[in-house]
Structures are given as C-alpha cells and as structure tokens.
C-alpha cells in the first residue's frame, strides 16, 4: 500500500530530487517550491532531500487570512492524536496575513499535548517533530519518521568555514555522473563534503582531494579516512569543486586555471564567479541556500 510523504528540498534542487526519487521507484505526484509530494513504494532513501515527513493530514490551503487559517487548523487537526509532546515547524508560499509562528502556535495549541515552540530553543528528546506546509493548493501536516533531519549526516564529524550543505554536495555528485573505476578529484576539498557524498553514491570510484589549508585536510580525514586526501591525480575523469565564494569576487578569484582537465567538472560558484576559459558550461542550476544564491555549473573542456 503506497503511503504519502512530503520531501523537503533546497530551493533549486526540486527537479533533481524528484528525478532521484522517481528512479528509486516512487511516484512524485506534485512539485512546488522546496517540496515534493511522493507516494512511496517502500522506504524512501534519498541523498538529495533536506528532510522527509510522513503525511498525517491535509486540507485545502486556507489562503491569506487569519480566520481562514484558524478554520483550516481545526479541520487539519480534527482526528490527530500525536500521543507525545510535539514541536511544529511551518512554512508557506505566497503572501499571507499571518506568520509561520502563527501557524505553529495554532497547531500546537489545538492538539492537547505539550507543545514546544522552536522559538525557545531545541525541544526535549521524545518530542515528535511536526511539519506544516502551505503550498498554495494544500495545507499539509507531516511527522518526521526518522529521529533527525535527513540533511544531518552521521559521517560529518568536522566542518570548515564554508562547508557545503550535504544535499547540495549529493546533487553535484549526481550531476557528475561518476561511474565505477572513475578517478574523481576535488581541488579545494575543505572538510571533504563533496567527495564523501560522492563516495556514498558510487563507492567503486577512486577519490582524491586537496586544499591549501592543512586544517581542512585534517577535517576531511576525520570525515572519511579512506579517501586519498592531499593528493592530486594527473588525469581525473570527474572533478567536483566548491571554491570559496565568501565575497563578490572577480572571475580570476576562482583558482580554476590551476586545475587539471577532467572529463566533466561540476562546481558550485558564488554570484559573479566564473570558471576560466577552458571550461564550456553545459548546464546551470541556480540555488538558494542559507540566504545565498550560488549556482551549480556543469562544464566540459573546450570547444
Ligand atoms: C568553500 S570551502 C570548501 C568547503 C568544502 N566543500 C566542504 O564542504 O567542507 C573552500 C576551500 O577552498 C580552499 N582554497 C582556497 N583557495 C584555494 C586554492 N588556491 N587551492 C586549493 N584550495 C583552496 C579553502 O582553504 C577552503 O577550504
């Protein structure tokens, strides 16, 4: 019996995540900003999604007004008994005359169990995380079946300034099309997020990463001791790169001129950043992540 899930994504990764989930045999029934609605054929294993919630209730989207919100919340929660303390995170698309906190408090106050607002910090262990979204058509209420958000990775023991959001790294690895036997190189690996995520997707390739900063190499080793850190292969088949994009930089601030030539390069660049002229961009994916607007660039050498 298929069951319904809300799959939450980074803005800009909706279609790539839908493709990953469809390939795994599930049915994506709707795609809106940051969200897929999925009829699952079994457990959903996704590296690209930010988080996953089992749908418990849905009603038509109430629109803009607070009165409409109150009525919708009453219908949404009518047959719901979480049985344990709850926290609620809400989000919506479009203009509304209420805030996400109004939604969270309205749900929390109706359910008859202790409610912890996330405004006051992390809720205690044993609390069920409810997720409410209004996508313009439907108001959804889901419960996170897993104990922690999907984007939180068990392998991540160390980070550096600018460490990449793991689902974004997973999307880049997918775009790289890494196959068994490929040699894959990250020339500015930081704490190693790109190669660690790539290796989880394709353990049959060989991975090399390096960085000017020795502290980054130490962090990367903690995250995956089995990758060849601080080494640079002569002729990689694929390259993954996340150069620093802390400030608006001139094009030559991307250190790509010193990178070896690879069969395909997948880089994430900040606003205003460009690869050097050897690389021909074949696809771009604009994202919004942590309030920034980088883009994933897929590039080939020459002509
Ligand atoms: C945005 S961080 C990479 C973060 C990494 N993807 C992660 O998730 O941890 C950029 C990295 O590039 C490194 N870097 C800057 N200039 C470099 C250069 N010329 N060659 C190699 N690495 C460089 C920095 O030390 C930093 O660790």
UniProtKB/TrEMBL annotation:
This is RNA methyltransferase. GO terms for molecular function: tRNA (guanine) methyltransferase activity. GO terms for biological process: tRNA methylation. It comes from the Bacteria. Keywords: Methyltransferase, Transferase. Residues 153-225 form the Ribosomal RNA large subunit methyltransferase K/L-like methyltransferase domain. It comes from Herbidospora solisilvae. InterPro entries: RlmKL-like_Mtase (IPR000241), SAM-dependent_MTases_sf (IPR029063).
